[in-house]
Design a protein that fits this description.
Shape: globular
Order of helices and strands: EEEHEEEHEEH
Strand order of the largest sheet: 1-2-3
Amino acid sequence: MNTVNTETEYRLLKFKTREEAMVDAEDYERLIKRIWILRNKKRNAMDAQQVINITWNKETKKFTSIYLPREIMQEKSDLVVILKDFTVLDFRKSNLIVCSRQHKERMRPKTKQKSTSKYKGVCWIFNLTD
């Protein structure tokens, strides 16, 4: 069933799509009450997968998305929550950082492919979905 690691105190949170993610044991009981979905949102090589919960808000008559990292860190401001080591399914608090969008962009890994041209101001954008 749900695995508990006694060394680092984490549990495996199961998603509707059958994947599992590591979360802290202290957050597990709060997170298990929702149905989480692993959503692939790859527009380019830097984009990662997102873990979300989508609920219908009766008052506003709109769908509301709750992102797992923001729910774990209980972040309500304009700041973003990112993964330190960019491991997709490790959502322990020790692997999460609350930072500004500018800091997030500085922390992104560089592209490993050549995207510049010999002409000034020209760069290549490769479509990775083909």
